[in-house]
Write a structure and sequence with these properties.
DUF6875; 2 domains; five-stranded mixed sheet; alpha+beta; 214 residues
Amino acid sequence: MRENGTPRLWSVRDVDHGTVPASDLPLLTEIVRWSREFLVPGHPELGRTGPVCPYTKPSQQRNLFYLTVLRGVRGIAEIGARVQELRRHYEELAGTLAENERQLLTFLLLLPEFDPEDATPLDDLQRQAKPDFVASGLMIGQFHPTCEAPGLWNPDFRPLRAPVPLLAIRRMLAADLPFLLDSDGSLDAYLARFAPAIPARARAQLAGRLVGAG
């Protein structure tokens, strides 16, 4: 943990070289392996060709895929505060990168003390954090062993299942529209970023109609 309360970040390269705390090495190694074996390849149930996550491999190749472990923090409110600190740290680091690298910057916040059989607290945490992230042009997603969120291309596929509860932070991309149809605010933030020529009032009206249609 850094002095400002932000968890220490480790790159995939750090994990591969074993230059991480010994107490966290097994957990970090497990998640790196999962990312390579599940996110990088395709999957027969995905419903489309290509990787499950097309950005994971280039992110790792550019050493822009970071992991951190949060332990000893109790209560959703306190964890939420740490998540917001991590968001600010993400924005600071992204500001030092070239545009093409910002799209690849990824943070994974591992939460090994969450109950892997009860997804409710993590789902609630993600739902509470999402508006601030989206307003900042970022996405935050929850992964855990029992995540029932369906795939976009195959509703029977479960792309957000991971061996350990975690939150993923990355930049919002144009392809994220389907993930933002659950609220007017999220969709309006998306349109403001990717369709800035549309007047604000028209964006709000369009967002309301699209969310209502969804």
